[in-house]
Amino acid sequence: MTTGTVRLRLAICAGLALTTLTGCGIFKRQGPEECLARAMYFESNRSSRDGMIAVGTVVMNRVQSPQYPDTVCAVVGQKNQFASGVLSKRMDDRGAPLAQAAARAVMRGERHPLVGRAEFFHAASYRAGYDNMHYVVTAGGNAFYERRKSHLVTQPVPLTNMEGLTGR
Fold it and tell me: What are the Cell wall hydrolase SleB domain coordinates in residue numbering (predicted)?
């Protein structure tokens, strides 16, 4: 058997394996709505629609920023930015519909009214020692903030959790 024949057979086998895995949901190419739903699902811990919309707003703010990739999936897939395995873990059947509906709403233009231009968030219980975090809202268990020069920060601690601000 020639080297060319071996390479051709390997390529065919690799293609068949990838096709099979794709059909099983592994290596599935995800669209922007699916990537957004996954970020919302895993980052808001399926806690509330407001929390999910706020996470989605941050993702879309990052997509619009020159500091981040320009697609939803690239933003969500950035290393060390979102929950580990956000694009590959399985979403359970109970929480997934809420995340998918919220992602559709954000893709159609809905935004959390208090997130504004914020590009960052962390668990509301976390206390960071930085002086450049200006908090704009807490929703769904996360505190959302803008990074500012320290003398421009007027809200240096996370706000009380607020719910019921987004459409249904």
Answer: 48-145
How far are the Cα atoms of 17, 26, 27, 98, 143 from residue 122, in angstroms, in the given order? 39, 29, 29, 21, 6
Q: What angle do CA 26, 31, 34 make, to 5 degrees?
A: 80
Per-residue pLDDT tens digits for 16-33: 444 333 333 444 568 999
User: Domain 32-152 belongs to what architecture?
Assistant: Orthogonal Bundle (1.10)
Query: Residue type for 135, please?
Result: Y
First-last CA distance in the chain: 64
* Mean per-residue pLDDT of the chain: 86
Distance CA 156, CA 150 (A): 9
Compute the distance between CA of residue 18 and CA of residue 34 in angstroms, rounded to an integer: 20
